[in-house]
Design a protein that fits this description.
The protein is α+β, with helices and mostly antiparallel strands. It has one domain: GIY-YIG endonuclease (3-Layer(aba) Sandwich). It has three helices and three strands, in the order E-E-H-E-H-H.
């Protein structure tokens, strides 16, 4: 299984979207500063994820979310998931 995920950094008040096949391992890498683009926002917290059967599907969804370039749309996605 593959996942897309959205992380939030309280210190920078920003979101990061990515994909992985191991959510826990990926979060550890982000919080150890092993990912250049998220190093300055430690600590990061999971706020959203979706599951996919293939890596290709996950990447397509990740790209879709990143193309939004809208904080409001990302927050609405997170909110809609929390209301389920």
């Amino acid at each position: 299984m593959y996942f897309i995920y959205i992380l939030h950094s309280n210190s920078k008040d920003c979101y990061y979207t990515g994909h992985t096949d191991d959510l826990e391992y990926r979060l550890k890498r982000h919080n150890k500063g092993m990912t250049k683009s998220t190093k300055s926002g430690i600590p990061w917290y999971f706020v959203y994820s979706e599951q996919f059967k293939t890596r290709t599907e996950a990447i397509k969804r990740e790209i879709e979310i990143k193309r939004w370039k809208s904080r409001k749309m990302i927050e609405n996605l997170i909110k809609s998931n929390n209301q389920k």
